Every structure is written in C-alpha cells, then in structure tokens.
Amino acid sequence: MSIGFPGQLGALDIINEYGIALSFNQLGRGNKAPVEPVWIAIRRIAETKNSFKSAREEILNLPAGMPFLITLSSSNEKEFAVFERTKNSQVVEHLPKNNRMGANNSATDHAQNNSEFDKAIRQFPATIAGTKSTMRTKKVLALNNLYSVIWHFNANRFYLASGTIPAAKGNYRKYELFNE
Q1: Where do runs of H (alpha helix) occur along 19-67?
Q2: pLDDT tens string for the chain (180 positions)?
Q3: Cα–Cα–Cα angle for 78, 84, 90, nearest 5°?
C-alpha cells in the first residue's frame, strides 16, 4: 500500500496492492459528531478491501457525521466513482459520463449542480490531451492550483502536474501504477 499527502490541505491519496485507489478531501458536509476521521476510514478501506464493489459498499455506509468527498477507482476492474456527503447527510455517488469524471472539492453540494468542470470536459476530446485542455480552461483552473492529477485507469497510469503554480498549466509527468 502507498499513502501520500500530495500537498493540498485536507487531501490524502492511498492505493493498495489490489489496485484500489482512494483520495479524499474533508470538504463534504457532516452535521453530527464523526465516529472516526475520514482519513482513518479510507486507510481502513485500503487495508481491508480488495475490490471496487467491497470498497464502494464501505463508503456508502460510512457514519453520518463524517464529512467528505472521496474518489474511488480500481485499476484492475476499470471502475471509478466519486462519493460526496451532502448537507442532509446522504452519501451521493457520482458515476462517470462517457468514461470521464471530475472531482471538485469546493465547499458545495455537487449532487444537483452541473460544475464548470462537467461543462468544460464535454468541450474537448476524451483523450489525455483533451483532459489537459479541460484542466487548463479558465473557469476550471484555480490560480493557486498546487497539483493536478489525471487518472487513466484503462492504461493503468496517472499523469501529475506539479512544481509550477498553477500546476495544470505546467508539464504533466506520466507514472505507471502496477505491472499487469
């Protein structure tokens, strides 16, 4: 298992030996006292779950007081989703459209919103180059963007831009995830 804090406050990334990857940001909504911190929950999920389905079920049943926005993907099963705790304590699962999805960690419920990223991603081809263009779109790009990650689960790799601000305008470096 690999655990990393990629440089943004509140974010944590974990990937286990089964290709299950989880990331979180604490910006979701919680209106009760949390039973455990969300980073402990996703660590537990990464240590005990070996499939997308079992990790998904665990996320959907996290305690009501825990705020979060969690991404879940499986490089082996080729599945991914984003989960968000809304202000009414529901866990909403966002599924990909046309095999693409963006996770926006702003302090807003996204279940009923069509985010700027959702609008922008449909303007460019479903390729790595198209996704880079989306990330650099004026209404998507945050000027304080410390890092930008594109997960390409079908190819078992991710692309990371960092070292410049805003990161998405810099160079994306390719990293292989697992030997297949």
Answers
A1: 38-48, 52-60
A2: 444 444 444 466 788 999 898 988 766 555 666 677 888 889 999 999 999 999 999 999 988 777 778 889 898 888 888 888 877 778 888 888 767 776 655 555 454 456 677 778 778 888 899 989 988 888 888 777 777 888 787 777 888 888 888 888 999 999 887 665
A3: 120
Q: What whole-number distance in Å separates Cα of residue 79 and Cα of residue 65?
A: 27
In the sheet that holds 172-176, the strands lie side by side as 147-152, 157-162, 172-176
Phi, psi (5° rounding) for residue 74? -130, 115
Short-list 103, 137, 117, CA closest to 28? 103
Q: How far is CA 80 from the centre of its chain?
A: 9
Which parts of the chain fold into alpha helices (H)?
A: 38-48, 52-60, 116-121, 128-135
Q: At 153, give phi and psi (nearest 5°).
A: -65, -30
CA distance 22 to 72: 5
Q: Are 52 and 26 in contact (CB under 8 A)?
A: no
